[in-house]
Amino acid sequence: MIHSMMSQVTLGIIQELLSLGHGSVLNEEGEVEMDAIIMDGKDLTSGAVSAVKCIANPIKLARLVMEKTNHLLLTSQGASLFAKAQGISEVPGEQLITERSRERWRKNLKPGSNPVAYQLGLGTVGAVAIDRQGNVACATSTGGMTNKMVGRVGDTACIGSGGYANNSVGAVSTTGHGESIMKVILARLILHYMENGMSTEEAADAGLNYMKTQVDGSGGVIVVNSAGEWTAKFSTKQMSWAAIKDDQLHCGIHTGENEIVSVAASPQ
Question: Which of 59, 137, 201, 227 holds its CA 20 to 30 A away from the CA of 195?
Fold first, then answer.
C-alpha cells in the first residue's frame, strides 16, 4: 500500500542525525528553523513546511499538511498553529541545538566567513522509495543554510526543487545550495530528462551539470525511476548515501564508492 511506503520514506528521514531537528544548523540569530517536504507520486499530493521552529521532526508535520489539508505548504507561525491543532508537541528550541551546530554558527559570524561554501559540507536528509506496485515517493528535510537570514526558505520546501515524485517517471530528492537548486528546479528537471529517455544516472548528471553551468551551483541527488533503477549523484566533495534493493545494501560517501552488503529480507 502507498501509505505503508510513505511511512518508510518518513521513517528513513526522521531516524537520521544530519541537518534536521536536533542538531540542525542555526540562523543568524542562533535559532533552528527547518524546512521539509514529502510527495506521493501516485496522485501528486504533497505537503511541505518551512521556517518552522520547536518541531523535533518537521517531516511528520509536512506529511500531515499533505494528508489533512488542501494546501501544499505551510510556513512559520501558520505551520506552528497547524502543528498544535494536530497534536504535535513543541519542544524548547534549545533542545534542538547541539554544541557542534552552535560552534558552526560562531565560526560563520566572523568577518570573511563564507556560509554558502561552508554549507556544502553539511547534510540535508532525503529519501526516495518505490513499492511493489510501482508507487514512488520522496521526502526531504533540512535545517537549511547555516547563519541564514531569519525566515529564509530554501529549496527543500519547494515542490520541484527539494523533491518531486510521479509514478509515471520516478522520484528525486535533492541537497546542496538551495538558491541554485531553486533557480533550475532541479528535482523536476531531472525527471524531465528521464521523461525524454535518459537513465537515472544520465538524468542526474545532466541536471547537476546544468545547475553548474547555469548558476555555478553544486549539490547532490538521489533518484529512482518507475522500474526501480536508482542512482546517487553529487557535484560536491562528498555525499553520504545508502540504498536497499533485492536484499542488498549499497552505500558510499565519496565519488565512485559503492560498498555492497547483503541484508536479510524484511518479514512480510
Answer: 59
Q: Per residue in 126-143, pLDDT tens? A: 999 998 889 999 999 999
91 is in an annotated binding site: no
Is 152 annotated to bind a ligand? Reply is yes
Does the annotation list 216 as a binding residue?
no
Do 9 and 139 touch, CB atoms closer than 8 A? yes
Known catalytic residues? 124
- 175 labeled part of a ligand binding site: yes
5 versus 32: which is more confidently predicted?
32
Pairing of strands 125-130, 136-142: antiparallel
User: pLDDT tens digit string along 162-191?
Assistant: 999 999 999 999 999 999 999 999 999 999
Q: Which fold has domain 2-262?
A: Glutamine Phosphoribosylpyrophosphate, subunit 1, domain 1 (3.60.20)
**Burial (Cβ within 10 Å: 0-12, 13-18, ≥19) of residue 235:** buried
Domain range annotation of the chain: 2-262
What cell does 212 get? 553548474
Q: What are phi and psi of 251, to 5 degrees?
A: -155, 160
